[in-house]
Design goal:
The protein is α/β, with parallel strands linked by helices and 492 residues long. The protein has 17 helices and eight strands. The protein has a domain of 279 residues: Alpha/Beta hydrolase fold, catalytic domain (Rossmann fold, 3-Layer(aba) Sandwich), CATH 3.40.50. It is 41% helix and 10% strand. Strands 1-2-4-3-5-6-7-8 form an eight-stranded mixed beta sheet, sandwiched between helices. Helix 8 crosses helix 9 and helix 14 packs across helix 15. The longest helix is centred in the C-terminal third of the chain and has 24 residues. It catalyses: Cleavage of a -Pro-|-Xaa bond to release a C-terminal amino acid. Cleaves C-terminal amino acids linked to proline in peptides such as angiotensin II, III and des-Arg9-bradykinin. This cleavage occurs at acidic pH, but enzymatic activity is retained with some substrates at neutral pH. It is an enzyme of class 3 (hydrolase). This is Lysosomal Pro-X carboxypeptidase.
Length: 492
Amino acid sequence: MTIAKNCVILLGLLLVIVNVSNTVASLSIPDPYLVKWYTQKVDHLDYSNRDVFKQRYIISDKHWKPNGPIFFYAGNEGDIFSFANNTGFMWENAPRFNAMNLFMEHRYYGESLPYGNKSFNELKYKGYLTVEQALADYAEFVTEFKQHTPGARDSPVIVIGGSYGGMLASWMRMKYPHIVIGALAGSAPILQFPGIYNCSQYYEIATKSFENYSPLCSSSIRKSWAAMRRVAKTDEGRSWLTNLFRLCNPLTEDTVNEFISFVSSAWDSMAMTDYPNPASFLQPMPAYPIKVACSYLTTPNADDHSLIKTIYSASSVFYNYTGTVQCNNIAQTGGSLGDLAGWYFQACTEMILPICSNGVTDMFEPNEWNFTAYSKGCYESQGVYSDRMKALILFGGKNIKSASNIIFSNGLRDPWSAGGVLESLAPSLLAIKIPGACHHEDLRFTGPNDPKQLLDARALEIKTLKSWLTTYYTENRIDNPAKNNELFYKMG
């Protein structure tokens, strides 16, 4: 088991960095916005380090009024425009609340690189890529922004995020409750850490999504791993696979594992994003892409070559639905090198999110998870040892009942829901389970095919945000600028 293979699996936390250029171009932000830069500290924990960097953020205040709320998106592992383009909940509800939208890019991702091109060259540069430093970035920025923006000094801030960004949103509310009055954490697997999580659950949920369309579909995938490895044993077989899957580089004995991971990523990525409307979140895909993929996977007992041909057709629903991809690069299925390097480092230091498979209760090739081997691989590739306890110690794991004003939303068909908070822990720690929904689907733009349970979840989120804001304005004796806004009183 190599660290490269495990990091690819972990990168699925938010594969928004897959094909970032296509994602950014495929959607447009609905309201006018500005791109700005904030001069940020590199190190919030050392009084002797004076290094700074430019941190990118997006601001849209078309609907905002003085003292109106600020919706702050806690950027995660990718280009900030990818999140701005795919978080329709904020854009659709800014008019309702007379809110301002702010999206801040996570340090070491997108264009917010503390040491430019050398940010990942050495540990002395990349060592500042931590959750604690990222949260401090957001806390300092929000504080300074409110102080220096006319009319915003008394504006309540609600932090919003999805996936790793959802984890950051919930943790920001826990760590800085005096700065943000509440958090909406979509598909945030804050319980997916060693010691409190069963690593097999992720792939079991993904498998159920395929089985629900057709048992023949999941059976075809389950049998394909052995078929691909048998074919890949010979030079002739590897050449055939190279041509069939249109690989950018010839498949070799040394890259067979990468190829297997490449195919595997198509399945769990589709399980994450089996949305009811066409989407370009990870890659351009049709509505219900698993249904389309499974239409090819109907002959699990076919001979190896015939079965693999169906696997190619099905996986192309994810990798090349538009038919415009010239070749597939299995060595790097993500976006820019910086985004990959950043997440690989975080996955090795503190974002230790175990995922394993057995091929029996799931349809994936068996792959056990062993922390000792994992940490050893991290030291060999990154020069660091993994700390599986850090996040639990810093943020409490399951012991977060003392926190307040956090919504944990999870689509129950999302594999990452296995590590999510699925039961309300207190009246103000609300868990919203959305049957049939996928990865932070509630945060996406409303679509014509959205099912009732998804619309109901969004309505409950809006109702909860209203409650937080009403309490804030009442307790602080501040006029709610949306009190005469008809939209404020509609839905939720």
